[in-house]
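Methods — Computational structure assignment.
A single polypeptide chain was analysed. Its primary sequence is given first, followed by the predicted tertiary structure written as C-alpha cells.
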Amino acid sequence: MTLIGNRYEILSKIDSIELNTLYKARDVYDNTKVLIKIIEHENNIHEDFVSNLIDESTNIDGIKSHYIMKILEVGVHCTEDTVLYYIVSEYCGGIGLDKIISGNYLHLEAIIGIATQILRSLEVAHAHNLYHGDLKPSNIIVDKWYNIKISDFGVTKANNGVNLRLDNNIRYLCPHQLNINYTDIESDFFALGIILYECIFKKLPFEKGATEKEMLKFIDKGVNWNEVKAVNGNEELINIIKKLLSRTNKYTNISDIIIDISKIMYDKADIEEEIIDDIEEKSRNGKIISPKKFLLGTAVIALISFMAAAYL
C-alpha cells in the first residue's frame, strides 16, 4: 500500500499513479474518503505555491458554495526522483465532465443545468476576488443528477496567477493567459465558452497548438461556425458561446451571461406550458401520449425546477 503524505491511500485499482489526475482516496487517520490530485514540481511553479494555496484554501472554505470543492490539505511528497505536491479535497461522488463528453450525448437541458451551476460558482468566487484560471472538463465532477462540484479553485491564483500548464494542456487558456500569463475573470468566461462548445459538438473549437504561440494563432483564426450545425434547438446557447469566445463583442460580467442563460430557460418554460396543456387534454380525452413528448415534458419541468432552485 502506497501512502501519499504518509496518510492518503489511493483507492483506484491502478498499476501506477498518473499525475494531474483526481483520484478517490482514503484518509487512513480517520478512515474517510477524500479526493486527491498529485502534481509534479515544474519550473513554472512558484516557490511559495504550497503556502499560497493553503491561504487560498482558507478563503475557499469561507465562500461555502455548493458548487466549489473544498480543499482539505495541501502538502509535499518527496520521492527519490522528484518532488510532488498533493492537493486533498472533500469527497464527492460522480465522474469528470470530460468522461461524460467523450462517452455520452448531453441533451440541452443537462448542458444548461451544468452551465448554470458553473456560473453560480464563478459568481460567488468572483465576488470574493477569486477566479479559477484553469477551468476544464476534468476539473468539473458531475453526479448522476447532473449536480456539479468544481475542483482546483485557488490553484492558479496560488501560483501568482500563472496557469500551471499541467501536461502542457493549454487548450482552455484565454489569449492573455497564453500571451502574458495574466489571469482574470475573463479567463474563466473564455474557458466556459470552450467547455460549452465541447459539450455540444464533442470537439474543441480551436486546433491544438503545441506552444502558446501556435495556440494563439489558432484562436486568432477563429471558429468556423459554418462547419458546425445547431441541433435540438440550441441556437440560443451557441450564440452565448460565440460571445464567450469573442475577442471584441464579449461578456464583461457574470450577470449578463446569467440573463442570457435565463432567456433560454424562459423559452423552455413556454414550451413546457404548451406540452403540459397537450398532455392534459389527451389524458382527458383518453388519447395516447407519445413517449417522446412525455419525456420532453418531464425533462423541461425538471430543468425549470432546477433553474428556479439555483436562483434561490
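Note: DSSP finds ten helices and nine strands in the chain.
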